[in-house]
Amino acid sequence: MRDVARLAGDVHPSTVSLALRNNPRISPEMRATVQAAANQVGYRRDPLLDAFNQHRLKSVPHRASRHIAAISDFSSAGELARSPHHAAARAGAMEAAARLHCHLDFFFCGPGQPSPRRLDAVLAARGLRALLLFGVRENLGPTDFTWSRTCTVAIDSLQMSTPLYRVTPDYREATRLLWRQARAQGHRRIGIIRSNASPLIEDRAIAGFLLEEFRHPEATAIPIFTLAGERGARPRFHAWLQAHGPTVIIHPSIAGKFLAQLLARKKIPCLAFDALSADAPGIFPDYAEVGRRAVEQLITLMQTNQRGLPPTAVCTYVPVQLPA
Amino acid sequence: MLRCVPELISMFTQATIKDVARAAGVHFTTVSMALRGHPAIAARTRIRIEGVAHLLGYQRNEIFSALSRQRKKRPNAHPIPTLLYLGRARSDRHFYGMDHHRQLVAGAAREAKALGYQLMINVVGPSGILPEKLQGYLAQSNAAGILIGAWDPAMEVPAVDWTLAPTIRIDSRHVPAQVPLVSFDQMKCVIVSFRKLHSLGYRRIGLALGEKDEDATDGLHFSGWLVAQTEFPRLTKIPPLLFPPKATFNEVLPLLQAWMRQHRVDVVMCNWKSIILMMRTLRAKMGRHIGCVCLCRGTQQRHLAGIAPNLDLVGQRAVSLLGSIIHTPPEKNSTPPMNSYVEGTWHDGLTIKAQS
């Protein structure tokens, strides 16, 4: 490395190290010079050594000041903890961050909290370069954050139109599993409800349901019931129930309360594809795993200094399983 | 400067490195290093030795040093960690001749370099690693990670223990390996195309797919198709056409024609790149304009409207994820592997036009 430093015009070895890792703190011209010098000498950094250094950081805690900003549009940490999915994702993300010697700082931009723009300034001032969008439900636009400054990975956050690296549970697989299970249990009329509360997540779920239906042409297809606003939904729902007589209903957990009220006396099992707890009927997606994967991906981006947004959206689907 | 006059060197003998060393008063290894410009030798000494060597007419034998470097370097040099990219094709030429493999490899190689690995590309097939030898090859190679690079579902899969090294696959769903998958987002691509065609005024939109391809993508095209239809419930639902496995261009044509006539299709979405040729062939027979969109457009097909699958990014993403698996190995017997999908990009083309 010292030879490379000398050849590149007597720069400091740390400049070489940063330049070979494409750190934007080194000017592009200098990076090119150093990389050319390294090529000439035949010097390459060793990724396995990088991994070792990362491991060594454990014993040198003051060097391990790698902070990740986790952004949520809840109004407080308490509110976040009350959402089972977010709480599980937070536990997973914290665990992965601890394992990889990073620290997770939570920031909130919900009601009563700073606006995204203000938050962006805070992150810049604190020198935070890694962003974990933590189940952001609103659409943070391309102008709300200076994306080019940070490495960013999102958990869910499907409403955002900005292309992102995303990690989310595989809801298409969830409804497919539920459909097949219901069918195996002898149900012949399987219904599904959508609420349009988070249309893109529900699109994935609907896709799995429709695919199973399509692949089993002998199965009775029941039209999707859309629950858009509770007003007037009651008579429509009863009409739908009467007309199609589903013996089991797959639904998003947000519609669970409504269903419980309406089906008080009827014994129709309801299965949520995104159940709020492991004991609730349906599938409880493994949000802890989602959190872990998101942090792991974010750290890889940090290591290679891949800041900014990807050219097109890239989504990782974490598998779901039927409860045992 | 010269310590002893080299009387032994007559005009008939050639100076050796030791003669130079003796004359310069240094060890012969110093001469060797100085003449190679090794940074451990001070510039002043190097210049002095170069002068002596020139005086004595000593020259390094480039061929000899190249050979001896080869021999010496192997055990001592620090090996650069390698990622192994495994293609599957009848021959290397066939593999590199295919545009999509070239794009995947380009993206993978770029990301490997950024992460500090070297990417070694090997084709599994009669001209490269023989399928039956693959297990042995993987066992003796000390690759840091393995990529199963878009294997052709039509080709037989060698029995291999994929747990030898961290592994990731690009497509290749038929390979029985419990490893993460990276692919192009076929579901989103159907939805985006459907919306585009609807906004152009097309109302009878048909979907034609290779039956094999639909299996290989785990129903993602159909998923997108079914969701898109719930978005536009008033449109006539046209049953998708599946091209039978191993059907050739000429066998598919009559199927396509009959299907388009029966359902009065206005525009066809298809995942085969040859759709543009099929439509050109059928144009005269159908007697009216029928649009076509390719769901997996080739880089050269500028006239063809459709989705470019950004395979370069798929390759890049695969290596990036492989890197994170190598650094943070998942616990044994953890959850089943995850799938990642890279979105494609829509391109307008001459094969569709706004409908009145």
Protein described:
The complex is a heterodimer of chains A (324) and B (356). By secondary structure, chain A is an alpha/beta fold. Chain A folds into 3 domains: 2-45, no CATH class; 63-169 and 288-318, Response regulator (Rossmann fold); 171-272, Response regulator (Rossmann fold), CATH 3.40.50. Chain A has 12 helices and 10 strands. Chain A is elongated, with a radius of gyration of 24 Å. The termini of chain A are far apart. The mean pLDDT of chain A is 84. Chain B has helices at residues 17-24, 28-35, 43-56, 62-76, 92-97, 99-115, 134-140, 186-199, 211-216, 220-231, 249-263, 275-286, 311-327; strands spanning 82-88, 118-124, 145-149, 167-170, 181-184, 205-210, 241-243, 267-270, 291-294, 306-308, 339-342, 345-347. The radius of gyration of chain B is 30 Å and the shape is elongated. Chain B has 356 residues and is of the alpha/beta class. Chain B has 3 domains: 17-76, 434 Repressor (Amino-terminal Domain); 82-184, Rossmann fold; 186-309, Rossmann fold (3-Layer(aba) Sandwich), CATH 3.40.50. Chain B has a 6-stranded parallel sheet with strand order 2-1-3-4-5-11, covered by helices on one side. Chain B has a 4-stranded parallel sheet with strand order 7-6-8-9, with helices on both faces. In chain B, strands 10-12 form a two-stranded antiparallel ribbon. In chain B, helix 1 packs across helix 2 (28-35), helix 1 (17-24) crosses helix 3 (43-56) and helix 6 packs parallel to helix 13 (311-327). Chain B contains 13 helices and 12 strands. Classes of the chains: A alpha/beta (324), B alpha/beta (356). The A-B interface holds A 2-3, 6, 22, 44-48, 50-51, 54, 96, 99-100, 163, 170, 172, 203, 206-208, 210-211, 214-215, 224, 286, 289, 293, 296-297, 299-301, 303-304, 306, 310-319, 321 and B 39, 78, 80-81, 111, 114-117, 144, 185, 187, 191, 219, 222-224, 226-227, 230, 310, 313, 317, 320-321, 323-324, 326-328, 335-345. Strand 10 of chain A pairs antiparallel with strand 11 (339-342) of chain B, so a sheet runs across the interface.
